[in-house]
Specification:
alpha+beta; Elongation Factor Tu (Ef-tu), domain 3; Threonyl-tRNA Synthetase, Chain A, domain 2; Diaminopimelate Epimerase, Chain A, domain 1; 3 domains; six-stranded antiparallel β-barrel; five-stranded mixed beta sheet; 8 helices; elongated
């Protein structure tokens, strides 16, 4: 562990080292240093970013026992390397990871809910708790306790121990390693094996806010943010509410009621619009039947097949002796509907099946109603004419 400066001092942002190896693997070009302050991906915590002699370090991974710094440029061996850690990125991970420890311990210590997995993302964190349904009051109690621990500004200690020494501590979860055991300890609150970077005290985590939670198989996934991300979330939500307030003509506390009124009004308008469309289709169907003496063959452009289906059904309900062919060209494809009243002759699914080879199409139906569609291998007029000739035959 001597070459891992981040374990000696998580606040160290610059260092001097030398390249001992360079190479290329499936992730790109990399260098290995004598010692490094760059934290590699591990234990649920993402890697540090920064520069080496001004060359950008895009990612850091530990592979085959060496820490590989993936760089975007060329670095010469044998010269001094000046490393610079992106502190904002590092401290964000320190806040988030320690916040996860604090919140997981709050759920465990208060309710016995164990954290079975953890993910630290760019926008928020998640923990999976071994409970299928998380009561709302339990979530808020855990959040309140977690923030109380932060407010108390308790120390966060790290300690290297041997396997024999583990019996002195009540660990929150079992360890997966038997060597190089590192504990992260919040005295009288949480004892946990962890290889991540952490601040010196809980106060530096600043705050924890649970955003939501959902069932995830047999567990519950809790989504939350810590530290400066809480402020960012608050700013984003405040901006949205500030923009919505004048649009809804409502204050923040009355916004939900205003949105419910709009949604109710929208549903009413949608029903009224649907009724109006239905009336227009009834009128259109009656007019087409009148103009064509019950034998309708019409061509349309950019008309949804769902509307053609409704129109055909309306016409056969108005005239039981009618036979209907409706063809539409939509986005370079041909679609059609064939229908007949119960007193008319013909088998509609046979009409449709005869037309499919013309358009490399497919569809289905029965004796009184059929539909289909395919490629525009012929013109819409030619397809309509083919179906008309079948009707006349």
């Amino acid at each position: 562990m001597k070459n891992k400066i981040y374990y000696e001092d998580a606040y160290r942002t610059n260092f001097t080292s030398k390249i001992i190896k360079s190479g290329q693997d499936e992730d790109g070009q990399y260098v290995v240093l004598e010692e490094t302050a760059f934290y590699p991906t591990g234990g649920g915590q993402p890697y540090d970013i920064g520069t080496l002699n001004g060359v950008s370090v895009g990612s850091v991974e530990e592979k085959d026992g060496e820490i590989r710094h993936y760089v975007s440029g060329t670095l010469e061996r044998g010269i001094d390397i000046q490393g610079e850690i992106d502190w904002e990125h590092r401290f964000d991970h320190m806040q988030q990871h320690s916040g996860q420890h604090i919140l997981s311990a709050a759920f465990d210590n208060t309710f016995g809910y164990k954290t079975v997995s953890f993910h630290l993302g760019k926008e928020y964190l998640t923990i999976d708790l071994n409970i299928e349904q998380l009561p709302e009051e339990d979530a808020w109690r855990a959040e309140e306790l977690a923030n109380q621990i932060i407010l108390e500004n308790r120390p966060i200690e790290t300690k290297w121990v041997s396997e024999d020494e583990l019996s002195q501590y009540t660990l929150r979860k079992a360890l997966k390693v038997t060597e190089d055991i590192r504990l992260v300890i919040i005295p009288d609150y949480d004892y946990n094996g962890c290889g991540g970077t952490h601040p010196r005290s809980t106060g530096e985590v600043a705050a924890i806010k649970i955003l939501d939670w959902e069932k995830q198989k047999k567990n519950t996934r809790v989504r939350f943010v810590c530290g400066n991300r809480v402020r960012k979330q608050l700013s984003q939500k405040h901006k949205v509410l500030t923009e919505l307030s004048p649009l809804l003509n409502a204050s923040e506390e009355n916004m939900a009621a205003a949105i419910n009124r709009i949604l109710t009004g929208t549903k009413t308008l949608e029903k009224e619009l649907e009724a109006a469309k239905e009336s227009l289709l009834q009128y259109e169907g009656a007019e087409l039947l009148s103009e064509n003496d019950g034998q309708v063959a019409e061509l349309f452009a950019n008309r949804p097949i769902q509307e053609l289906q409704k129109l055909a059904k309306i016409m056969v309900s108005l005239n039981e002796d009618s036979r209907i062919i409706l063809v539409a060209e939509n986005d370079g494809k041909l679609q059609f509907v064939c229908a007949k009243g119960k007193n008319a002759e013909g088998i509609m699914k046979e009409w449709a099946a005869a037309a499919f080879p013309l358009i490399n199409g497919k569809g289905g139906g029965n004796e009184t109603f059929a539909q289909g569609g395919g490629e525009a291998l012929v013109s819409a007029e030619e397809l309509l004419q083919f179906l008309k000739e079948n009707l006349e035959a």
